[in-house]
Amino acid sequence: MNFSEPFKLSGLLGRFSPDGKCLASCVQYRLVIRDVDTLQILQLYTCLDQIQYIEWSSDSLFVLCAMYKRGIVQVWSLEQPDWHCKIDEGSAGLVASCWSPDGRHILNTTEFHLRITVWSLCTKSVSYIKYPKACQQGIAFTKDGRYMALAERRDCKDFISLFVCSDWQLLRHFDTETQDLFGIEWAPNGCVLAVWDTCLEYKILLYSLDGRLLSTYQAYEWSLGIKSIAWSPSSQFLAIGSYDEKVRILNHVTWKKITEFEHPAIITNPKTIVYTEVEKSPSVETGRLSFPPRALASSLFSTQSKYDISEVPVSLQYVKPVADKANPKIGVGMLAFSPDNCFLATRNDNIPNAVWIWDIQKLKLFVVLEQLCAVQSFQWDPRQPRLAVCTGNGKVYLWSPAGCVSVQVPVEGDFQILSLCWHSSGDSLALLSKDNFCVCYLEREEA
């Protein structure tokens, strides 16, 4: 495993291009495009204000930079560095911006969710979509890029509009049986749209492409409901993370629950492997070190850690949620399926130091990783069942069915990894901290 030197970064804005050739990162108001292999700067663009969001177009030819405070979006071309585009929403303001799947239209959501403006880079035409709903996840595109679903709110009722992305024509418009719609997400095969309600109402609805309600699922009533959802890559399973600290798995045939996974504070099953991170002091013979480089020295003398396999029963660190505050840290807030559909990784927010890995074929708990610090982020390798985890310190953790490893990033100074993202090949990993980022290269043998 090799690491690049650290580079400056702001706002955790570092993204690999979809074709895997470039890496975009932001430093205040500058957009830096690097070659993935050499990390040499290919292009340097200067925006009008501090960048708050970036997104690559699907063909990796353009980068969108949003400056929400100014209500401005700037678009930069990799093929023609002199070409640039500025979209100013003016007094309408800007709260969200994204590419359409064709990489030639930009969808801007104005302040107070008054409308969505669709800007065409090719024809310079402008279209407006009224009544977008102010919710966490109100726009969803099918994986093949043909259709867009939009959550709407009008006359105190929730609606879904389905648009054809090629010409932005309305395909279907129907109301949903939700009290206060919170999010929408397409199945990867583009056949089913999941719609879920606010956390005050446990309800998930499944609609077909023609607007028919296929099924409604409600696990319980009169308590905080759905916190997160994830589709399996094959579209066969829908995982629902709830505030009651359970994940429920629905199947794609009957849309009924096939199992539920609990997250107890004490692991008692002897068949579950519990990897516990333990710190170990560095054992370095100082006499043999003749003034090593500073970066090497700082990594040599920093506290190392490794994983021990714990004997069950194992008590995990449980944080009691504060009952009188909004958004309590309770329930399953993070879940993700592995690319081969074999595993599901979850985090229960009131056991923040643990990652749970479930075997989907056997529908049971397979592994628990107990970290020393709270888990900030995890992400699956896009090519194989390998999970990368970061916990806000200078280490990156990798798990695969063969075992798991803790690796100290050999960077000088304070490098606290808050987020990470995989390269599309699975051969490298961008590690993002508050002020810096570096790239971790994994050797082929490790795969």
UniProtKB/TrEMBL annotation:
InterPro entries registered for this protein in UniProt: Centrosome-WD_assoc, WD40/YVTN_repeat-like_dom_sf, WD40_rpt
Domain of life, per lineage: Eukaryota
GO cellular component, one term: microtubule organizing center
Annotated SMART domains: WD40
Protein name (database record): WRP73 protein
